[in-house]
Amino acid sequence: MQVSVETIGTLGRRLKVAVPADQVEKEFNVRLQRLSKQVKLPGFRPGKVPLKMVEAQYGGRLMDEVAGELIQTTLYEAIGSQGLRPAGDPRIQRKPAVRGEQLEYTVEFEIFPEVKRFDLAGSRIERPVVTVSEEDVNRTLETIRKQRATWKPVEREARQGDRLSIDFIGRLNGKEFDGGKANGFQLTLGSGTLIEDMEQGLLGAKTGDMRQIPARFPADYRHSVLAGQTADFEVKINEIAEPVLPELNEGFARDLGVADGSLDKLRSDIRNNLEREAAGRARAVVRARTLKLLLDANPIEVPQSLLDAEAQRLKNSDVAGGLGAKDEAAYSVRARSRVALGLILGEFIRNRGLTPDPARVRAKIEEMAADYESPQEFIQWHYEKPERLSEIEGLVMEEKVVEDLLVSADISDKPVSFQELLKIETVVQ
């Protein structure tokens, strides 16, 4: 077998492969002999049809089958002989297969980019350190009270925090549009449930009022038809109600699972939960910063086939989640970062010879299962199918990569408040 390789751009490769004529002939004869024992033609007993007649009738089909089979059996041998690793599916073109001649075909594909840095020597990472304060506990208590508020109808002007029951009709250029009409819609002013102009236009309204409110949709609104457009809303206010927060007493504590109704125990539980949340988010921040440094240390070109596939996956995911379609360029940017990081992590794992530790995988699943009502069912569900288990294995492997990278980095602790921690990005951009 003869193989020649041509470089196309940075990652593109074109292989020209020639399978020797004697190998083609051998495969053809094997198939011809096999078929001659099965074919039936008038005037001949089964298995006694002359090879010439079988070839005359079925030779073209047999040559196509031989060509397909030989391409399948020689393709990755040819690629491997050049020390190449394809990223994505190869694209194959072949010349017509002819008896007595070598089989020639061309295959084009992209290869995985070379990753050169597998450490973060000389890099500095700030690790956020949080001490949960009394103010954090009080803020959480207040949030819980608001979540459990009851509503009392009032006869006054609407203000922030009030809940309104409204009927509305929206028109764009004088015409109603899908999703722009509702009756008995409940809106808490300041919640951001509706677009800002709409909520602002309802401040100061009274029960029974009819209001005409022009409202501009954000430029990145999930429905592209409305994005950046100004619609006119006709709104009727049916009711205005103010929140009545539950008192901080034993009954409140019991409702939140504190058996003896102790407010001190409730505050202690809240503090413990906030500390767990802070620890988990701090780890997520360090992870994101570590992986971003690794990404920046390896400015690789991304195979177009992988980039296109990931961009389409992100787009489909957003549309399925009701977020609408974004600009194609936005998907390409997100996809490029995700694919590049995935390739770099894969090379890191391969370079270090890392494999998932079954005990650590089990521990991760059990940790996640603790948040579910039936932990054992959650655990069993993941072990039922390899693809489910592989997702957790991927998380564990990523954790291991981050741990290995942190060994080579300069880590410094930085005290931050709980509220500051919540604002720190935990996604690799």
TrEMBL record:
EC number from the UniProt entry: 5.2.1.8
Catalytic activities: [protein]-peptidylproline (omega=180) = [protein]-peptidylproline (omega=0)
Pfam families: FKBP_C, Trigger_C, Trigger_N
GO cellular component: cytoplasm
Name recorded for this polypeptide: Trigger factor
Family stated for the protein in its record: Belongs to the FKBP-type PPIase family. Tig subfamily.
GO biological process, one term: cell division
Superkingdom assignment: Bacteria
Gene this protein is translated from: tig
KW Isomerase (keyword) present: yes
Keyword DNA repair: no
Cellular localization per UniProt: Cytoplasm
MF term (GO), any: ribosome binding
UniProt keyword list: Cell cycle, Cell division, Chaperone, Cytoplasm, Isomerase, Rotamase
Class of enzymatic activity (EC top level): isomerase
Segments forming domain PPIase FKBP-type: 161-221
InterPro entries attached to this UniProt entry: PPIase_dom_sf, PPIase_FKBP_dom, Trig_fac, Trigger_fac_C, Trigger_fac_C_sf, Trigger_fac_ribosome-bd_bac, Trigger_fac_ribosome-bd_sf, Trigger_fact/SurA_dom_sf
Gene source species: Sulfuricaulis limicola
Database matches in Gene3D superfamilies: 3.10.50.40, Trigger factor ribosome-binding domain, Trigger factor, C-terminal domain
Protein task: Involved in protein export. Acts as a chaperone by maintaining the newly synthesized protein in an open conformation. Functions as a peptidyl-prolyl cis-trans isomerase.
Entry note about domains: Consists of 3 domains; the N-terminus binds the ribosome, the middle domain has PPIase activity, while the C-terminus has intrinsic chaperone activity on its own.
Source taxonomy: Bacteria, Pseudomonadati, Pseudomonadota, Gammaproteobacteria, Acidiferrobacterales
